Amino acid sequence: MRILRWAWIGSGALLPVLWRPARDTYLFLPINGAGLGHVSRALAVAKELRRQKPEARIAFLTTSIAVHLVYREGFVCHHVPPAALLDGVGAGSWNRHFYSCVAEAITLHRPRTLIFDGSAPYIGLQRVMRRFRAVRYVWIKRGLYKAAVDQGRLDDQLRWFQNVIVPSEFGEPSQAVAARPRVSLVPPIVGMGFDDLLSPLDACARLRLDPARPRVYVQLGAGNINGIADVQARAVRTLQKRGYQVVVGQSPISLRATPCDEADREIVDYPNSRYFAAFDFAVLAAGYNSVCEAVALKLPAIFLPNHATQADDQTLRASMASRMGPFEVVPEFSEAALLEAIHKLQQRIEAGEVFSSPDANGAALAATVVINGRS
Predict the structure, then answer these.
(1) Cβ distance 206 to 263 under 8 Å?
(2) Kind and range of the H or E element at 284?
(3) Residues 154-191 as b or e (16 or more Cβ within 10 Å = b)
């Protein structure tokens, strides 16, 4: 099987292709099925790239169903359905389809640089890389893989790329990523800045909240990997018993969105973090975007890690972030555990605990690497 796989990957290099890339053209390839992490990070870098290089032509191809969010930011976007949503389609068939779609997008847009944001390069992408050798390939490779993930195989896959950008995590030791040729460690990549936030009064007005009463934001993910409705409802009820107004953030790509009748308000927006100034604190899943936005935008939070992710170690991320300011972690949800975390968080807020997050946003440095090949 391995011999057949490598033969298929290598055969792409034998195809007769009279093709040359266009200058200042970039194709972003974020891989997403269940959440918004990869596509949000790619959008943050693409917007910064556009700011640094206004003449750049930028296109997207993604497996995320959030295509409309990419268009909303002003970028053309192609879509490939993720394998998880195609019943009865095997990995081989999906990779052939993925290869064809990426190859067609490259032929159409003629990118000089392809920026891949995903956990690992699929063999369909590897075949593209063997065929389109004139393209420069960049991997935005988020860390914090679970212990079960084969790190040796991931390290071996670095050789496919001319540049690798590793967005760091808040609270992560600076030496956590070993220095390697062509690997650039950048600060956490955050899609929102303080200038993008609504004012507290404006956010309360839009959400129809009473600014004189305490308010909490709850966002436990899209629910496409694991069911969140029960935990979400229990968390909302627990907060309301303590007198909080509760706003639940629903993901714009939730496949099975269940209305939270218990909540005072629901919002389906992107990014929901624009409303952060309205809240005293948040109860959040521990995905990359949620944690980085809470820390960077200085919103106290209680993190509920999702243990059902395939590769992402949300428990470790939440634990590291909890050292950056008034943040608490509930490793296993229960109403008693949530109440204890609320009590501890309130004590830290009332004690005036400061946030230690840096002001630098890794999107700017990542865009510089994409443009120049170095920071």
Answers:
(1) no
(2) strand 281-285
(3) beeebeebebbbbbbbbbbeeeebeeeebbbbbbbbbb
pLDDT (tens digit, 9 = 90+) per residue, 177-191? 556 778 999 999 998
CB-based contacts of 49-55 (< 8 A; 24+ apart in sequence): 49/367, 49/370, 49/371, 51/367, 52/364, 52/367, 52/368, 52/371, 53/24, 53/371, 55/24
Are 247 and 209 spatial neighbours (Cβ–Cβ below 8 Å)?
A: yes
Note the pLDDT tens digit of each residue in 191-203.
888 889 999 999 9
Residue 16 has pLDDT above 50, yes or no: no
User: Which residue type sits at 176?
Assistant: A
Confidence check: pLDDT of 293 > 90:
yes
The amino acid occupying position 362 is G
pLDDT, the chain, mean = 87
Say what the pLDDT of residue 311 is: 74
| Residue 106 · residue 27 · CB < 8 Å | yes
Query: Are the C-beta atoms of 287 and 39 separated by less than 8 Å?
Result: no
Q: Dihedral sign for Cα 31, 33, 35, 39, please.
A: positive
Kindly state the DSSP code that residue 134 receives in the 8-state scheme. Answer: T
Q: Are 333 and 232 in contact (CB under 8 A)?
A: no
**Does an H or E element contain 57, and which?**
strand 57-62
Q: What phi and psi values does residue 300 have, to the nearest 5 degrees?
A: -55, 145
Which residue matches tokens 């690997």? 183
170, 320 in Cβ contact below 8 A? yes
Region of 127 on the Ramachandran plot (φ > 0 left; ψ -120 to 50 alpha; else beta): alpha
77 DSSP β-pair partners: 60
The whole-model pTM stands at 0.87
Residue 18 makes CB contacts below 8 A (sequence gap 6+) with none
- Report the alpha-carbon distance of residue 363 to residue 52 in Å, rounded: 11
Inter-residue contact 101 to 78 (CB < 8 Å): yes
Is residue 182 left, alpha or beta, with left meaning phi > 0 and alpha meaning psi from -120 to 50?
left
